[in-house]
Queue: 3 jobs
Job 1
Amino acid sequence: MKISMNRICKSFDKAEVIKSLDLEIQDNDFTTLLGPSGCGKTTILRMIAGLEKPDSGEIWFDDSCVFSDKNRINIPPEKRNIGFVFQDFALWPHLSVFENVAFGLRAKKDTVNIKERVNEALESVQLSEYKDRYPSQLSGGQQQRVGFARAIVTKPDCILFDEPLSALDAILREDMRLEMKGLIEKLNTTAVFVTHDQMEAMSMSDWIIVMNKGRIEQQGKPENIYQRPKTHFIANFIGKSNWVESDSMFRPETAALKKKDGYREFPAVVSGIDFLGEKYNLYLNVHGKRWTVESSSRYSVGAEVSVYVNEHDIVTI
């Protein structure tokens, strides 16, 4: 399902959160809305779901209008055929895993073959043997899988994710990223994922839309967003940036500490060092600018080094 948002505006208490937004999410893509807290990404997600009403504009699912202030259209959430995976899992503590997954079907009075459909959803997230347990008897990762099974059991045209991994620890979060991406690919459905975590966005997405203060800063493939940022905000928000001038930068991993023909040389002094296991991060003073580069060797604070950068890796913004 393709989602189109046209000239969408939304304010809370006279504070404009979304500012005349035009946005398209392509059919069967895994699209991530990425940005800092308060940039409007969750508000966009909730407007797609019908949980928030825009002040103006239109929202289309393929060729069907689900919201239009001009034409007074506002299709309720339960009729939009959207799955929603919440940040806090939102499971009913008094219901078993089976009944939590079945809840949406029962609420819609869509109970034909309900047992088979719920069991199929639980099997897809590898929780069949836990169907009689209660949320308090599950780990965080298992609870998140229940939330995902509940979202897919209704066979939605699109699944929305509101920072679903933020409550998990770092190791489990990495495992769930791979698992969730794989499940979405198997379902062959449209997914919209909201996060402020750049690693999640880069590793999971087909397409990234970077938000800032209610507006789109840049959108594109993860590689393009990272390698060719279009604004200072993007360059500083995603990854690390070493600024050569006020309008040009390069990524730390593109630099070398050994001389290379055709590379620009920048004298620097080591001002700090982090040991990261497989490598070191060196913090450098380069004519008053603070740079970070990667190194396989340890250097002493105060050591003088040279940084070599290919001109093609320097991005002008």
Job 2
Amino acid sequence: MLVCDSTRHASDLLASMLRMAGFRQITVAENVSAFTEQIGHGSFGLAFLGDHPEALNGAALVRGIRTTEAQKGRYTPIVMMFSDATQRSIVLARDAGVTDFIRKPVSPAILAVRVEQVLSRPRPVVTSPTYFGPDRRRRDATFKGDNRRGS
């Protein structure tokens, strides 16, 4: 696990909750630059990124990680944590390639549920000219109608 929140205290608290949930290998990044460097190694099963005053746009940070082909961590699931989540900020983060979201303050129960969801049901990676990241669809929508594309 890789953890980076807006303050060291918040990051340490999240790391402590992850340890209580049974995870032992947790790296706390001091800041956004350290997060970007650490995730670039591509050795994490899951990363948590909080909203940071120093990162003007967390979505832009995630988009940069996802779209850089040399970035080993571009496939790492990233859970974004929001202090003030608005529909607009969630849509921007989702469209940048964030895997999932948590609204702060984070409780151990919510954290455990979110980790279980992300790790037990990984979504396929989608690559297109304008997007790289986890499939944004969260449910399997069965098409009803005529198959006009042929067999």
Job 3
Amino acid sequence: MVALASITSLLTGCSSDSGSGGAGSTGSGDPLANVTAKELIPSGIVGLGPNGVKSGTLDQVKLTEDEVAKAKARKFRVGIVMQTMNIEWSTEQVRAIKDRLKEYNAEVVGVVDPNFDVTKQVSGIENMIQLKPDAIISIPVDDTATAEAYRKIGAAGIKLIMMDNVPKGLKYPDDYQGMVSSDNQGNGAVCAQALAKFIPKGGTVGVLDFGVDFFVTKERMKGFVDWMKANRSDIKIKTTEFLDPANSGKDAGNFLTANPDVQGMFTEWEVPAVGIDQALRAQGKSVPITAVNIASDVAMDLATGGNIKALGAQVPYDQGLAESDMAIKVLLGGTVPNWVGFPSVPVLQKNVLDAWKQVYHQDPPAQLVKASEATNGGK
């Protein structure tokens, strides 16, 4: 996504009390100044996968040399059905899938981009089935509304590997053969832990929650709320919903106007985080925001000391590699775990460049490097 054009706000906030998860108090310091990203990493995978399953391991997905040789000889065909291609999480998933499948002499027959539209995704799934790929790798726009379309994939004899979510009612391993995601509850906990350091005792935080039946966003919300209840029960949480990511800024603005006591905001991915940031700027306010995912716009705001204070990042490139391996292994007759989860990657102003490299397996954009060098010595 395009970086925010003008980021001029300076880092403000509250200096934290001593001790883990301590409440903030009004002051001129940065409460995350003495916090390292490593300190925010949860101990192990916090969440569970679909139907409450524990995460499997990457070793269970990795192909043997013999399997790689067999895959190259078979020349499998794989389709990709995304929820949108307008975010870096999606483009990096697809890049990784293509990179890995190329190693196995497999063909990507097409990429469906419904732009968060259920009707377009259902149509895209049906069209992809007509191409008769050996496997489809996909993420649903809506867990419930797309379920029947996803059932048709297995009925057509096509293997199905899910990203992040499993549509309602689909059974493992009959309807789908595996799912890959980041530890979304863990990412929510990372965001809560970071945001809590800005909030004084008895303060109030707002949550801009995605009001659609979407497993991973609900997991992030659960991780955020559970951490707050366990560690900062003094903080009051107010929640509002948005349905259309494109209108999240308007929804955030209405919420902030109606709740002037809000001292921090959390939302479940970078698109609504940008909406919150834009709403705050329009109102002339500076409020700390935490969210999930690292993308160009939120990374730039974080690097330059804007309203974005911390992120809990997924690892979309690594996830794409694992999804590809899953697809090939099941096509060769193997079995993979119901769910494989990747640990959270906390992102702060001080480690934004290193985190970008870890998440995307690429050097960060030149503009982000320049901004980080100007504010943080290039770290």
